[in-house]
């Protein structure tokens, strides 16, 4: 998957009204930092970023003609309209190992559900390490083979070449549960059936 390239501009105004103006124009306030990169406040072109960079872990950020390979460290979303409010970028060296949290995505859920299994996912991210270009945007795991009562552990995750798992191997990612059984006899009917019949006397 190609690394998106985003051209950013330096952001000088840091007051709340400056941030509001940036967002009103459809752009996104951001910050970039790293070992060899002093923190800089940026403005990302909102339309281009949302179209080409969302969903990617690595992007190339161009600032005043200089390109910085960067990891999308965090994105702040509006709780109601789900627009991007702020982006945090970590500039990295492509030849140095980093550690990152990667989302765990599932496929094959429908095959489990056809067998009446209920998928209960406990963990949605895995911590991995590797070169920045080797760490994937997500880990796709096929769980269609799991039966009721079985579990998927961290040690079962399939990792790309050059990436190592840092999470506890024994941690449970998900379990397949059996559906809850509903009693066929209601409490009221059960009570009436078990009530003793009193003998009538003249």
Furnish the topology, listing elements before pairings.
Layout: E1 5-10, H1 16-24, E2 28-34, E3 37-44, H2 46-52, E4 58-63, E5 66-77, E6 84-91, E7 98-107, H3 109-114, E8 118-121, E9 125-130, E10 139-142, E11 151-153, E12 164-165, E13 172-177, H4 187-194
Parallel strand pairs: 1-4, 2-6, 7-10
Antiparallel strand pairs: 1-3, 2-3, 4-5, 5-6, 7-9, 8-13, 9-12, 11-13
Structure description:
There is one protein chain. The protein has 202 residues and is mostly beta strands. The protein has 2 domains: 88 residues, Ribosomal Protein L25, Chain P; 79 residues, RNA Polymerase Alpha Subunit, Chain A, domain 2. The chain contains 4 helices and 13 strands. The strands form 3 sheets. It has a 6-stranded mixed beta barrel with strand order 1-3-2-6-5-4. Strands 10-7-9-12 form a 4-stranded mixed sheet, with no helix packed on it.
> Low-confidence runs (pLDDT<50, min 5 residues)?
192-202
Q: Give the proportion of residues in helices.
A: 10-25%
CATH architecture of the largest domain: Beta Barrel
Derived from helix and strand composition plus strand pairing, the structural class reads mainly beta
What portion of the residues fall into strands of 2 or more residues? 35-45%
Arrangement of strands in the largest sheet: 1-3-2-6-5-4
Apparent shape: elongated
Termini separation: 92 Å
